[in-house]
Amino acid sequence: DSSLPPAPVSGGSISTASVCSAVLMACDAIRTKLYAAATAEGGPLASSHNEEFELADGKIVAKSGASAKVGDVLKAMQVGAIEEYAEFAPKGATPEALKKLYAGTPEFHGGEQDEDSVKYAFGAEFVEVRINRYTR
Predict the structure, then answer these.
(1) What is the CA radius of gyration of the chain?
(2) Within the chain, how many helices (H) and strands (E) appear?
(3) Do 47 and 68 form a contact (C-beta atoms < 8 A)?
(4) First-to-last CA distance in the chain?
(5) Which one-letter DSSP state was computed for residue 1?
(6) What pTM was computed for the model?
(7) Nearest to residue 62, comparing CAs of 78, 72, 50?
């Protein structure tokens, strides 16, 4: 009954390990598009095109200190927002892993076999309960 893609239960922090890599990939792509638009010919940071940039306080900031508001760059791009789609498959996943996931039969990779990855991610859920001493 949903048009959302398959995903694990979102209890605790369990979905963090599942989605963060794809979110990071999408954010990197958006940042690349913003920097390219800001430094394009006629862009607000065109003279800074060989510099490194960072995003801070709603601005694209060059190492030299030159900056442009993200909103102004979006206006120059003639868009109100940038939307990106990203998929991430962990190291060791087969080329068919994402197709299997979308079909509802996910493959599992990583864990103890993967020596250079984060293991044993922890999430916790809490609940506060009150018990009426008269009605229990």
Answers:
(1) 22
(2) 3, 3
(3) no
(4) 38
(5) -
(6) 0.66
(7) 50
Which amino acid, one-letter code, is at 87? E
Instruction: Give me the amino acid identity at 53.
Output: F
How far apart CA 133 and CA 110 sit, in angstroms, is 48
CA–CA separation, 95 and 100 (whole Å): 10
pLDDT tens-digit profile, the chain (136 residues):
567 666 666 666 666 766 788 888 899 999 999 999 999 998 899 988 778 999 999 999 999 999 999 999 999 999 888 889 888 877 778 888 888 888 888 777 655 555 655 544 444 555 666 767 777 6
Q: Are 73 and 37 in contact (CB under 8 A)?
A: yes
Cβ atoms of 68 and 83 within 8 Å: the answer is: no
Q: How far, in Å, CA of 54 to CA of 109, rounded? A: 33
What tokens does 72 get? 């102004």
